[in-house]
């Protein structure tokens, strides 16, 4: 909605996500080796990097789907998964954690729609069940979102009756339905046939221009160029390079970034 | 052989290159005729003959005494036995499923204590004969004359006479339900495990509490693999209730036994029981089919809808 240039807008806006020295390992295998990142309100961050570099793991640490071993991530004014009481940090109870996640939408590589619910029910499930919205309101908003992703006529279909691209657009509508402050996308187009990628990316580009704060893990360099305010290149559990799309994608300074980008030319 | 394949390929290539299609005229498939499968018809004839043979044996055999069967089929004592069997089945199954659900959740929970408790429970109740368990519950009073709720090694809070609580009816219900719970726990656990882990992760990411995710997301999907074995369980439960006749519960089997102990018409009265058991299980089978169809909704090749409806799900739902 706000048509001012994204970067100038985001430089002034407050920090929504602040990650500091995030460490995560699976057993002996260290996957994240100290990640620092600030994401400002309204920014679109694209995370690039080779397979196994820890992109998904970092994204999942943000909404505490993974427990990290060190460092901190603050979303808004809370550490998701933890609770401050009397100056000490406690692990949050499941109820508190559920509340902390209410403002964070997530879109998965494999869509993960609820197959036993219709498209409309998929979208209204969290607004009604978690956020306590009235059914009529939730459904009206869900229909508006379906129209936005171009799937109005599919509200009564079941997910398995839709194509992959349609399913992912429903998944995006489902994540938007909770009116999130932050959207996390984990390779939203990787499970799609090439001709279906475009429709999903177009939807995401719309969201980026409308000022939603998004962190997108993707291999779509084109999307990063057009829609990202900032591109992060990760390799081997660390942020190797970070900057505007031109800096990272056109004039990378790090040899590893160049080697990675060469594969896409 | 080889030559003909090669020549076919060449025709096809010529066809696609020249755009003229195959040399023969393709017909519209809507006119396609299903050819007769003689083997299948033969099988039907053989099966029908066998069934007819079996029926004529059963009907003409004097020992079945069909007139006696008919006389007792709707006798009030038999019908009341039927009600006892049905009532016991329903109550024991409902309790067993509820306890089984709790056990399955315990078994899958992160908590060591809960998971070991459920494992030991399932191990014990599946590992000992139903009959022994029933007799044990029935004779509780001789083992524990008093039942009480107390703090271990501490004061007693409430106290009952065991005999006042454990009647044949309660012994039967408790015995059947606790035993059923062990089996249902495993059925339900299998169902919960069959659901894609991504589903509970998604529910979690959307801020759903564990219990809501279980009720709204996981269990409805698990039902697809829970229902068929539960149908099995229910049917063995109906027949399993006949065991309670040993603790003097007058269920269906017990009431026909009571009759033939007087009249010595053993075979026809057993036939009465058999007919009723078959009637109940047939009704259950039909019910199960409908339940399975309900939980199969949302499947791509759902048998409930025709192919056209799959193509237009929006029309179908309105
Ligand atoms: N549950 C797990 N247990 C053990 N190791 C894991 C687990 N999940 C991920 N890993 C490891 O962590 C590393 C980082 O995984 P991650 O999924 O974050 O990579 P990624 O950057 O998202 O890769 P991709 O582009 O292929 O999705 C990989 O080496 C992977 O093998
Ligand atoms: Mg990944």
Automatic annotation (TrEMBL), chain A:
Keywords: ATP-binding, Cell membrane, Membrane, Nucleotide-binding, Transport. The keyword Nucleotide-binding applies. GO terms for cellular component: plasma membrane. It is a peripheral membrane protein. Residues 17-261 form the ABC transporter domain. SUPFAM superfamilies: P-loop containing nucleoside triphosphate hydrolases. InterPro entries: AAA+_ATPase, ABC_ATPase_HisP-typ, ABC_transporter-like_ATP-bd, ABC_transporter-like_CS, MetN_ABC_transporter-like, P-loop_NTPase. Pfam families: ABC_tran. PROSITE patterns: ABC_TRANSPORTER_1 (PS00211), ABC_TRANSPORTER_2 (PS50893). It is found in: Cell membrane. Gene3D superfamilies: P-loop containing nucleotide triphosphate hydrolases (3.40.50.300). GO terms for molecular function: ABC-type amino acid transporter activity; ATP binding; ATP hydrolysis activity. Belongs to the ABC transporter superfamily. This is Amino acid ABC transporter ATP-binding protein. The lineage of its organism: Bacteria, Pseudomonadati, Pseudomonadota, Alphaproteobacteria, Hyphomicrobiales.
């Amino acid at each position: 909605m706000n048509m001012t240039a994204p970067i100038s807008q985001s430089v002034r806006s407050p920090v929504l996500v602040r990650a500091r020295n995030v460490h995560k390992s699976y057993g002996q295998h260290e996957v994240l080796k100290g990640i620092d990142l600030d994401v400002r309100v309204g920014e679109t961050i694209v995370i690039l990097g080779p397979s196994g570099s820890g992109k998904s793991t970092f994204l999942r640490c943000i909404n505490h789907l993974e427990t990290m071993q060190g460092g901190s991530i603050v979303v808004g004014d809370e550490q998701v998964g933890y609770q401050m009481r009397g100056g000490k940090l406690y692990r949050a109870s499941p109820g508190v954690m559920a509340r902390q996640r209410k403002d964070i939408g997530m879109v998965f590589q494999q869509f993960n729609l609820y197959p036993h619910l219709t498209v409309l029910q998929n979208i209204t499930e969290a607004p009604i069940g978690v956020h306590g919205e009235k059914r009529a309101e939730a459904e009206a908003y869900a229909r508006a979102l379906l129209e936005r992703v171009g799937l109005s006529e599919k509200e009564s279909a079941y997910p398995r009756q839709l194509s992959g691209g349609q399913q992912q657009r429903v998944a995006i509508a489902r994540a938007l339905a909770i009116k999130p402050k932050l959207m996390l996308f984990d390779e939203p187009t990787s499970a799609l046939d090439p001709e279906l990628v475009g429709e999903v990316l177009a939807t995401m580009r719309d969201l980026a221009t409308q000022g939603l704060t998004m962190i997108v893990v993707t291999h779509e360099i084109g999307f990063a160029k057009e829609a990202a305010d900032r591109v992060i290149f990760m390799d081997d559990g660390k942020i190797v390079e970070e900057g505007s799309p031109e800096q990272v994608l056109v004039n990378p300074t790090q040899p590893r970034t160049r080697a990675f980008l060469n594969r896409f030319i | 052989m080889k030559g003909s394949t090669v020549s076919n390929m060449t025709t096809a290539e010529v066809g696609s290159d020249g755009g003229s299609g195959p040399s023969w005229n393709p017909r519209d498939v809507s006119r396609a005729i299903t050819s007769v499968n003689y083997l299948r018809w033969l099988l039907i004839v053989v099966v029908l003959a066998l069934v007819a043979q079996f029926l004529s044996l059963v009907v003409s055999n004097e020992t079945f005494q069909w007139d006696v069967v008919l006389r007792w089929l709707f006798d009030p004592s038999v019908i009341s036995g039927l009600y006892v069997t049905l009532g016991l089945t329903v109550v024991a199954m409902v309790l067993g499923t509820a306890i089984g659900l709790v056990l399955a959740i315990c078994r899958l929970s992160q908590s060591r204590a809960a998971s070991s408790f459920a494992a030991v429970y399932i191990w014990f109740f599946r590992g000992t004969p139903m009959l022994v368990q029933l007799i044990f519950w029935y004779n509780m009073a001789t083992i524990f004359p008093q039942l009480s709720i107390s703090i271990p090694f501490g004061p007693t809070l409430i106290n009952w006479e065991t005999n006042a609580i454990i009647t044949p009816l309660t012994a039967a219900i408790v015995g059947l339900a606790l035993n059923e719970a062990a089996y249902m726990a495993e059925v339900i656990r299998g169902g919960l495990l069959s659901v894609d882990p991504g589903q509970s992760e998604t529910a979690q990411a959307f801020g759903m509490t564990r219990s809501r995710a279980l009720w709204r997301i996981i269990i409805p999907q698990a039902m697809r693999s829970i229902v068929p074995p539960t149908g099995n369980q229910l049917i063995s439960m109906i027949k399993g209730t006949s065991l309670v006749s040993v603790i003097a519960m007058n269920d269906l089997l017990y009431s026909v036994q009571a009759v033939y102990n007087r009249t010595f018409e053993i075979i026809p009265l057993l036939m009465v029981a058999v007919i009723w058991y078959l009637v109940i299980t047939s009704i259950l089978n039909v019910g199960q089919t409908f339940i399975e169809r309900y939980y199969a909704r949302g499947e791509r090749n759902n048998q409930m809808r025709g192919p056209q409806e799959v193509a237009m799900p929006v029309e179908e739902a309105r």
